[in-house]
Write a structure and sequence with these properties.
The protein is mainly alpha-helical. It is 63% helix and 0% strand. It contains 7 helices and no strands. It has helices at 2-5, 10-29, 39-45, 49-66, 75-83, 93-111, 124-127. Helix 2 crosses helix 4. The radius of gyration is 16 Å and the shape is globular. The chain starts with a helix and ends with a helix.
């Protein structure tokens, strides 16, 4: 309780470690080939939307951290992700964009708007 009052979030740290371990397993499963591990691939082919969100979030947090903004990214996490040659930049940014765009179109067709809730259980990365 005392450490949590100081802003230390142990639950969040444990979740980060769990997702990182999942990412390591997936990385080795695909013979250390990140080209086979785009966010849409992780989400659809691997069936792991939470890990897809994790990958996207690490990129966002890295950018914030690089700019000196408050971020859960730190040197330890950066080093761990670099150990598995984490792709900080997308090789085909339009591929991920077009994939999400198609999902947003489907959402719009069904709901009549593009106001995806932040926590959207049917498609967590779309709401993220």
């Amino acid at each position: 309780d005392l450490l949590e009052k100081l802003g230390l979030d142990f639950k969040s740290y444990a979740q980060w470690e769990d997702r990182y371990e999942e990412l390591v397993v997936l990385y080795h499963k695909h013979n250390k080939d990140w080209s086979a591990l785009t966010v849409p691939d992780i989400e659809k082919k691997e069936g792991n939307a939470e890990l897809a969100c994790f990958v996207t979030n690490q990129r966002k947090q890295f950018t914030k951290w690089q700019k000196g903004h408050k971020s859960p990214m730190n040197q330890e996490r950066y080093d761990l992700l670099n150990k598995i040659n984490f792709p900080w930049r997308l090789k085909e940014p339009n591929k991920d964009f077009m994939y999400r765009y198609q999902e947003l179109l489907r959402y719009h067709d069904f709901h009549g708007d593009t106001l995806v809730p932040k926590r959207y259980p049917e498609n967590p990365p779309l709401g993220h």
